[in-house]
What we know:
The complex is a heterodimer of chains A (112) and B (440).
Chain A: E1 2-8, H1 13-23, E2 29-35, E3 42-46, E4 49-53, E5 56-65, H2 70-81, E6 89-95
Antiparallel strand pairs in A: 1-5, 1-6, 2-5, 3-4
Chain B: H1 5-26, H2 37-65, H3 71-98, H4 104-107, E1 126-127, E2 130-131, H5 132-154, H6 160-182, H7 187-191, H8 199-217, H9 233-251, H10 260-288, H11 293-307, H12 316-341, H13 349-367, H14 386-416, H15 423-428, H16 430-435
Antiparallel strand pairs in B: 1-2
Amino acid sequence: MKLIMAIIKPFKLDEVREALTGLGVQGMTVTEVKGYGRQKGHTEIYRGAEYAVNFLPKLKIEIAVKSDMADAVTEAVAAKAKTGQIGDGKIFVSDISHVVRIRTGETDNDAL
Amino acid sequence: MKVSMLQKISLAALASAGALILSAGSAFAADAPKIDSGDTAWMITSSALVLLMTVPGVACFYGGLVRKKNVLDTMAQSFGTTALVTVLWMVVGYSLAFKTNSDASVNQFIGDLSYLFLKPMTLTSVSGTIPESVFMFFQMTFAIITPALISGALADRMKFSAFLWFMGLWLIFVYAPIAHWVWGGGWLMTAGALDFAGGSVVHLNCGTAALVTCLVLGKRIGLGTENMAPHNLTLSVIGASLLWVGWFGFNAGSAVAANFNAGMAAAATQIATGAASLSWMFVEWLIAKKPSILGMTSGAVAGLVAITPASGFVDPTGALIIGLAAGVVCYTSSVWVKKWLGYDDALDAWGVHGVGGALGALLTGVFASNAINSAAHGWLIDGNAHQMVLQLEDVGATFVYSGIVTFIILKLIDWTIGLRVSPEVEVEGLDINLHGETVR
């Protein structure tokens, strides 16, 4: 079982979700986050007063899948979240040791 | 001339109906002074419109511009000033500003105390063509917004107790005398200075006090290093829009009648405001590369300020030019001059109201037209260059008097109860520390 965690540009969420639904992914968690990478921040100006905003808004999406689906999901996220511009984000893939579905008590692959 | 039977009958009916009304009327008001119902209706409406400018107008405009930790204190300043000045105006302010002092030389500078607690004012007291109660209320709303506007300069760092003392003392020792000079029969009115709705009395006056206040208080902690961006510009847009709407009571209401002058003042106000909003926006677009909504609203307020003394004296073309000038000049003062001189006028009360008020007062002398108002003889249209001398006197006297007396009041408060909150309170936020409330 793999956890795929990706930081993406907020306006790419719908495209990513549609692609994953097509692959049979059953769920995802989305969080609004702020951060910086190579894109750095931007500047806001209020009546001439400039403020550097170092943390830009991004979305963090988390998807837990069976191991055999991990590559396909990773590729789909990478393809759909890409604009080619700096600031497209990153994908992190890690192992999951145990999963429980709270309602039924199913575990691991049955719970995904 | 032969009058038909039908006409005779209807005339007779009218006459008897008239007699009935007269006899009924005389039962409770034998010789009630004449008021004009149209004027009275308009002036009650205007008073409510001007009140709308302070609460919620200024409260929202300034509230949105400060950081989230200070929004309630900023709104409390507008609301608190409204309540405090209402009472002080009833007790002593109206009398000092608008009553004629029996000593003619003293009357050049201040009214008297004959109207303490409005005692002599009765149900049927008349001022011009409206009840005096309405005139007193209308002027009260001006006395409310003028000190409330100063709060833009002292935002984020003044104690609320010191603020209330400041508002009360400033009303009595700065606003009331200057209002008397220009509107209450004082020396500037006698000399013939033109200020239709308060370019110098209200805006230059509060702007000057704002400049002095931010200099006496000093800069906010973290200025230049910390992010002090407005926490909610939608609130500011709502506030600025309410100011725009309410301003028709301010300017058109200053005709103190529902007449031609009120109509032209309303038109001039709308034209100048649109022009100023555009000129600020385009200058900013050119220089800072983006047309900000804060710029559009700031420009609109600058235009409203600058047309205030001129509305009622200028034609639509004059209004257009005053508006265009206001946007550019107030942008320059709020952005460049402030940065250059380094004072911390947090929300640009001086940059917009002080500079815009002075600009408007001077341009009133330039564009005032006898064809628009029989009381006016301007420079450009009527060839009366002397009007410019009077306008300069008006601006200079307001700036000097307001500046000096504001400084004295602030120093007195500083020596007694202290003006500024502690650094700890300032950093943590005024809302939770001064008012025990926060916005989540």
